[in-house]
Structure formats: structure tokens, C-alpha cells
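Residues pack. Consider this:
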Amino acid sequence: MIRTGLKMSSTTSTIIPSWIDLKSKSESTIVGKSLVAEVELRSSGKGSAHVQNKLRQFKSEEDPQITLFRDHAGWCPYCQKTMLLVEEKEIPIKIDLVPMRSYGDKPREFLQKVPNGLLPAIEVNGQVITESQVIMELLDKWHPPSEGYKAMLPVEEDRKGWARYDSLSRLERELFSWWCTLVFRPEGGVMGGMINNPFKKRQEMSEAMRGFLDCIGKVDKELKSTKGPWFFDEHDHPTMIDFIYVSHVERMLASVAFWKGLNLRDQKWKFDGLNSWLEAFEKRESYLAFKSDYFTHVMDIPPQYGPGFDGGFEEDRTKFAKKITGRDGSWNLPLEFDDHLQPLYKGPPLPLTVLKSMDIEPDSSGSYESADPIAMEKACRHMAAWKLAGNGANVARFAARGGPNGSTNPRKSFGAQLADPYAEPDKEIQPLVDSALRIVCACLLTPGEKEKLERELIAIVTDGDLDGVKSSLAYLRDRVGVPRDLPLASARYLRAYLNWAIDVLSK
């Protein structure tokens, strides 16, 4: 029997707002209006950086001659660093979004151009070029400072600058190697007694941990050696080597916290240069557009690099792992304003157009840590509601894969744990999931009506369907991707309101 998803009670019969109504309501909010205008602007190649952009014109009015192929979900670190370079230099470019092997099949048209399927890739005048480093260097060469583009590399005659660049490049490879050794191989022992004074008992560290921390210390020293936050002093913006580092450092932060209990941003480690560099990136809207959260990273890292091994500082590892996955209650309402493990407000937590629409301004350093928490929460909620309402029926169909009769069809599987693109929904539970999600969306828009919406949610789901609707909502919650779907500041509200609905149905 197909459930209707209508709210029925002994005294009244009402219909939950439709997706059309919710879309209209979300687009009529200040946040929604700003996002609608921004989407239109981005479709013309202008506007802000975004992980789903397919055209970047910047100041150019000519049709771009270069097409960049990059991953659709924002998982690929090599695509990320390439896009950061594109955004910083403001290179006009077309973008074709392609799945990674770990979460989907690549289109035949792409494989005809790039038979090995490597990402990123560029096509120029019919020629296809792969390898991110080669692509970044060519993009920089084709768009030189003499034509008004930002410099990304030392000038040819700067021998000292090139020597530093080469040295930093080797250090980046050394850091990458130590990261792989620490996270993707059994560590051989658990450390203790080091939480308050991490360097006091180095003999208690594994060789892999010591090697990784020593190498991070070298990186930190190089960053401290410059006057500004970047690896080179010559410019007030990040350059090629900063982009080469940041995409993997971002993944290191998530993985060593989750699998090793190591919070590199904690002041006790005294990596001040590293933290200043990270905060300088986080103040750039273009970085926010491609920045993931720790949960997304610990889900997307294993299919790309292999499984991570637990170890390190066991007490903190357990605590951090629960926090990253929301098992400590941190994904439940009410949410704390900030997240000490992955700070939200060192720079703009949401697109600038959203923050400006709500009159949320940074302090003199560019931080939003002292912003009005009530206004910030409203901006985050309304952005989440706008995203959900804009594709509600399809999102409900997707979520219903988590129902008791969902994801049972024979299909091809992929390496990513949460990727299942060919799964079919539970069609019987889907109408109820749709209704539940409309209630979630309505609550994101008007949390003051939460009690009324709770009653409606309870009324539409019978006892026999409770588990199916809850599992569907949890299926969706665990697949809210950052940055693909929303920036973390907003995504965590969508996750939390999905948990709110699950909790209501669990009573």
C-alpha cells in the first residue's frame, strides 16, 4: 500500500505545505533572495566561487577556450588545488563536473577524451592534459602577470625564490609520506600521558607519530619564517605552493583527529604558523567554496587512499571520532555556536551574499567569531531550508533508499561507503519520507512552530512505518556532503533538524 503522507487527527485534517509552497517561502526570505540572485549571477560565469559552478568568466566577456574536468562532489584534493588557483588568478574557464571512480561511473564522453579517467584534466584546442601539477603550471604560464593576472611562481631569474619553492615542494612530499605512514598503516601501539604536555614524553610516541609531528613542525617553521601568513613574502595572496599544500593539509587535519586523536589546531602543539596560514585561507570566500568538513573527509578518504587505522592518543581519538560523526550529541539541537575541533568562524562561514543580506559583518581581522549568534543561526537555517526546498521531491526519493525495502535492487557498487548511485528507493515509504522532510524544511524556516510541527510529524507516521521513516532520514543525514550540498555552518543545521525529526519519531 502506498502511504499518502497526509496529516490526520481526530479533530482536523490538514495538508503539510507542499514543496512548491516551501520553495516559494524559502526564496522570499532575505537569505533566499540573496541566494537566488547569486545562482543567477553564477550561471553567467560571474558571482562567487562555488563547487557546482560550470562557468567562470570573472571580468572577461569572451567565451573561455579552456575546459576543466573536475570531480562533482568536491572530494578530489587535486581538483581542489587546481580550482583554488583558478579562483585566485581569476582565469576564465569552462568546468565539466565528473564523478570520481569511488562514487560513480564516468560519462562515456569524458572517457573518450580521457581514457584513463584521471581528474583533474583540461582540454585546450582539442588537446587533453592531465596531472594537477602540470595543469596548474600551464594555467599560470598562459595567464601571466604581464596580462594582469596574479603571480603564482617566482620570476625566472629569482634563483633564491626557486630554491625555496623546490625545497618546499620536497617538504610537502615528505609530509604526505609521513601522513600516509601514520594514518594508513598500523601504528603499533597506543600512547598515553601526553595530553597536557605533548612533547614531554616523546618516547611514548610511535615512530610514525614522531615523524609526522616533526615534519609538521618543519612546515610550521617555514610558515613562521615569512612576514605574512603565506609561504612567500613577495605577495599578499596565496601562491602555487600554498595551494599544493592546503588540499592535503585539510585532509590531514580531519584524518589525524578521527583516527589518531590529534588536533593539530590545538594551541598546545604550538603550530602558530600553521594556524595563521589556515586562518588566512579561511578568510577567503573562494576557499570556503571548496572546503570540506571532517565527516565528509573521513568518509571520502578511505576509497581514495585506503582504510585509516585507529591509534595515537586513544582518549582523544574516541572523543574526536564521536564528535566528527555526531555520536556525542553534537549533531543534535541546540547546536553550540562554534566547533572547537573544526572552527567555523575564522572567516566567512557562509557565502558573503548571505552574510551581507543578514547584516552580519566580520571584525577588523576578518573573523566572524563575535558575530550575533541569533542572526548567524537564522542565516544557516534559512540557507539549509532553501537548499532542501529547491529539490525537495528528489531529495525525498533519495532518502527513501534508506527505507526497509530501499536499496534492494541488483546494482553496481562503488568504493565509497556512502555512495550508492543506482540504489532504488522504498516506494512504499517514500510519500511519508516526503512529508517528514517537508516538516523538517518548515521547521528550519519557522522553528517557533516546532511544537505544532512535532504533532504533525507524529500524526502522519503510524507505528508500523516509524523505523522506515527514521532510517530514511538518517540515510539522508549521513549523506549531506560538504561542500557539495552546503557549507558546514549550514549543513550542520540540516543534519541537526533531521536528527530532531528522528528524535520526535523515537518518542
Remarks:
- The two ends are 25 Å apart (CA to CA).
- Residues 154 and 162 are 6 Å apart (CA to CA).
- Confidence is low (pLDDT under 50) at residues 5-13, 189-200.
